[in-house]
Design brief:
- The complex is a heterodimer of chains A (311) and B (289).
- Chain A is an all-alpha fold and 311 residues long.
- Chain A has two domains: 91 residues, no CATH class; 162 residues, MetI-like (MetI-like fold, Orthogonal Bundle).
- Chain A is built from 14 helices and no strands.
- Chain A is elongated.
- The longest helix of chain B has 37 residues.
- The chains are: A mainly alpha (311), B mainly alpha (289).
Chain lengths: 311, 289
C-alpha cells in the first residue's frame, strides 16, 4: 500500500511539470515562422489566398479558443504526432527516433565509464584515507566535477584529433569513435560518484559488521570490497539513474563537438533554423523519457531499499 | 567566533587563493573597459586570426578582434550574470525557506511542493522551450536559471531554520514573548548566514559554467557579445589552425569556476564546526547541480 501511495505521490508531483512544459511546447507552434496556416499551405504547395487561408484555418482549428487548440494539440502529441519537419518534410517522430540509438549508446557508455572509474577510486581513497592517494583523488574529483565538460571535450578533440591524429575530428556516430565523447561525459559523473561513494564507504567502515569481518581475518581492503561496497553503492545507484535520465535526453554540447548524430545535436541544429515542429517533438519525447526513467527508478529503488517511506 | 572563522579560513591555502582570484576577477569585470588593451568589439578584417604578438597578447579572432580584450569583457558578461542570478535566487529562496521552515504546516507544504516542481524540470528542455518562444538571449537564459534554482536554496534554508527553531535560545525568545518577525531577524537569520554564503558562492561557480555551456550551443549570449561560450563556439572551426582560440576562453571558465568553488569549500570548512565538516555541501549536494 505504502509503495503504491509513494508512486501515486510521484505522479501527482510530475503533473504540474507536464502541464507547464506541454503548454510551453504548444506555445511554440504559435511563434513559428509566419502564420501557421500560411506555412501549412505553402508546404502543401498551395498558393495562399484569402479563401484558402480561411479554409485551412478552419481545418486546422485555428479559430477555436486556445484551450481547445491546446487539448487538440495534446491529443496529437500523445500519439506522438508532431507533424513534419520544415527542413526535411519527414515526420518529426521518425527524425527523432532514428537518431535516438546514437544518443542511447553515448548515455550507456558514459554511465558505465563513470562507474568503472568511480569504484576503484573511491575504494582507494577510503583505504588510504587522509593520506596522499585520498588527497589526490579528492582534488581530482573536485576539479572533474566543476570543469565544464564541453571544454574538456574540445581539448581532448584537439589533443587526440589534431595533435596525435588518432581520432577523427569529424567522427560521425560510429561506434569505434565513441570513447572520446563518452569519456568526456563520464568525467563529471565519475567525480561525483567517487565523492559520494567515498563518503559512504568511510561511514560504513566504522560500523560493527566491517570490524567483525576484519576480526575474522579479512584485510582492510578485502572487508571494504566484500562487505562495504554493496551497501555503499546503493545511494549511488539513484544518482546513476537520475543522471542516465538526463543523458538520454541528448547532450547537445558534447554531441555537437564530436559530431555525434544524436537527438541533442539534431534539436539544436533545428533550433538554429527555427524548425519548430522538431523542437516541440524533441521537448515532449525527452520529457516523457525523463519522466518514465525517473518513475522506473523510484519503483526499482523502493524494492532494493524497502526502508524508503512516504515523507 | 568570527575571528576563529577568519583564522581557520586563512590557514586554508587553496581557499585563500580562490578568494584572491575571485576578487581579482570581480575587479577586472568592473573595470573591464579600462583594463582591456583594445575595443573588444572593434572589427578589423585585415588583422584577423593573428597569432599572439606584442600588439595582441593572445592574438585576434576571425573578425580581427583582440582576444584578450574580449576575454576581459567576457569576465563582466559571465560574472555579472552569475551574480545577478545568484542574488535573485537568494531573494526568492531565502524568504521562502525561512517561512516554510518557521511557519510549517500548510504553508510549508505549498512552498515545498513548488520547490519539488522546480527541481523536476530538466533544465535544457526548459531553456530550449523558452528560447524557442522568446528568442535566444542571455536574459531569457537567466530567467530559466532563476525559475529552476531558487528551489534548492529554499530547501537548504528551510532545513537550517527547522533545526535552529528547536534550539534553547530561540525557545527562550519565544517564551519571552518576542514577535515572530523579531525572532526570525534576530535569532534565526544570523545563524543561517554562513550556510547561505557558502551555498551562494558555490552557486555562482555553477551558474558561470552553465551560462558558458548554453552560450556555446547558441542558447545564451549571442554573437558578437564578448562571452566565453560564444568565443569557444567561434573558435570551433579553427581547431586545427588556431587552437589557441579554444584554449583561452576555456581556461578563463575553468579558473573562475575553480576559484569560486575553492572559495566556497574553504568558507564551508571554516564556518562549520569540525564535528560536522562539510555539513552544508553534504546536506545540499551543492557541488554541481
Amino acid at each position: 500500500m505504502k509503495r503504491l501511495k509513494l508512486i501515486l505521490l510521484r505522479i501527482v508531483q510530475i503533473i504540474p511539470v507536464l502541464l507547464i512544459v506541454t503548454m510551453l511546447a504548444f506555445w511554440l507552434s504559435n511563434v513559428s515562422a509566419g502564420d501557421v496556416a500560411n506555412v501549412t499551405l505553402q508546404s502543401k504547395g498551395i498558393q495562399p489566398t484569402e479563401e484558402s487561408l480561411a479554409a485551412i484555418r478552419e481545418e486546422l482549428g485555428l479559430n477555436d479558443p486556445l484551450p481547445v487548440q491546446y487539448i487538440n494539440w495534446l491529443k496529437k502529441a500523445c500519439r506522438l504526432d508532431f507533424g513534419v519537419s520544415f527542413q526535411t518534410n519527414r515526420p518529426v517522430t521518425e527524425e527523432i527516433f532514428s537518431r535516438f540509438p546514437a544518443t542511447l549508446e553515448l548515455a550507456i557508455s558514459a554511465s558505465l565509464l563513470a562507474v568503472i572509474f568511480a569504484i576503484p577510486l573511491a575504494l582507494l581513497a577510503t583505504r588510504y584515507r587522509d593520506s596522499a592517494p585520498d588527497h589526490v583523488i579528492r582534488v581530482m574529483s573536485s576539479i572533474g566535477a566543476t570543469m565544464p565538460d564541453f571544454w574538456i571535450g574540445l581539448m581532448l578533440l584537439y589533443f587526440f584529433g589534431v595533435q596525435l591524429k588518432i581520432a577523427p575530428i569529424v567522427a560521425g556516430s560510429k561506434i569505434q569513435n565513441i570513447f572520446l565523447p563518452a569519456f568526456t561525459l563520464s568525467i563529471q559523473y565519475a567525480a561525483t560518484y567517487t565523492r559520494v561513494l567515498r563518503g559512504n564507504l568511510v561511514e560504513i567502515n566504522r560500523l560493527d559488521y566491517i570490524k567483525a569481518a576484519r576480526a575474522r581475518g579479512l584485510s582492510e581492503g578485502g572487508a571494504l570490497v566484500k562487505h562495504g561496497l554493496k551497501n555503499a553503492i546503493l545511494p549511488v545507484i539513484t544518482l546513476i539513474g537520475v543522471n542516465f535520465g538526463k543523458l538520454v535526453g541528448g547532450q547537445v554540447a558534447i554531441e555537437t563537438i564530436f559530431s555525434w548524430n544524436g537527438i541533442g545535436q539534431f534539436a539544436i541544429s533545428c533550433m538554429k533554423v527555427k524548425d519548430l515542429p522538431v523542437i516541440q517533438g524533441y521537448i515532449i519525447i525527452v520529457l516523457l523519457a525523463y519522466v518514465i526513467v525517473n518513475l522506473i527508478l523510484d519503483v526499482v529503488y523502493m524494492y532494493i531499499d524497502p526502508r524508503i517511506e512516504v515523507e | 567566533m568570527f575571528k576563529s572563522i577568519v583564522r581557520k579560513f586563512f590557514r586554508n591555502k587553496t581557499a585563500v587563493l580562490g578568494l584572491i582570484v575571485a576578487l581579482l576577477l570581480v575587479l577586472i569585470g568592473i573595470f573591464a573597459e579600462q583594463v582591456a588593451p583594445h575595443d573588444a568589439y572593434a572589427v578589423d578584417i585585415s588583422q584577423k586570426l593573428l597569432n599572439p604578438c606584442a600588439e595582441y597578447p593572445m592574438g585576434t579572432d576571425q573578425m580581427g578582434r583582440c582576444i584578450l580584450s574580449r576575454l576581459i569583457l567576457g569576465t563582466r558578461t559571465s560574472l555579472f550574470s552569475a551574480i545577478i542570478v545568484t542574488a535573485i535566487i537568494l531573494l526568492i529562496g531565502v524568504p521562502l525557506g525561512v517561512i516554510a521552515g518557521y511557519v510549517g504546516g500548510v504553508t510549508d507544504n505549498i512552498i515545498m511542493r513548488m520547490a519539488d516542481v522546480a527541481s523536476t524540470f530538466p533544465s535544457s528542455l526548459l531553456a530550449l522551450a523558452i528560447v524557442g518562444i522568446f528568442g535566444p538571449s542571455l536574459r531569457n537564459l537567466v530567467f530559466v536559471f532563476i525559475f529552476l534554482w531558487w528551489a534548492p536554496f529554499a530547501r537548504m534554508v528551510r532545513s537550517q531554520v527547522m533545526k535552529i527553531k528547536e534550539t534553547e535560545y530561540v525557545l527562550a525568545a519565544v517564551a519571552a514573548g518576542d514577535s515572530r518577525f523579531k525572532i526570525i531577524v534576530r535569532h534565526i537569520l544570523p545563524n543561517t548566514i554562513s550556510s547561505i554564503i557558502v551555498y551562494a558562492t558555490l552557486r555562482i561557480a555553477a551558474v558561470i559554467a552553465h551560462i558558458a555551456s548554453f552560450s556555446f550551443i547558441g542558447l545564451g549570449s549571442q554573437p558578437p557579445t564578448a562571452d566565453w561560450g560564444v568565443m569557444l563556439n567561434d573558435g570551433r572551426q579553427f581547431i586545427t589552425s588556431h587552437p589557441l582560440m579554444l584554449v583561452w576562453p576555456g581556461l578563463m571558465i575553468a579558473i573562475v569556476v575553480l576559484a569560486f568553488n575553492s572559495l566556497g569549500e574553504g568558507l564551508n570548512d571554516a564556518m562549520t564546526p569540525t564535528s560536522e565538516e562539510g555539513a552544508v555541501v553534504k546536506e545540499t549536494g551543492a557541488v554541481n547541480v
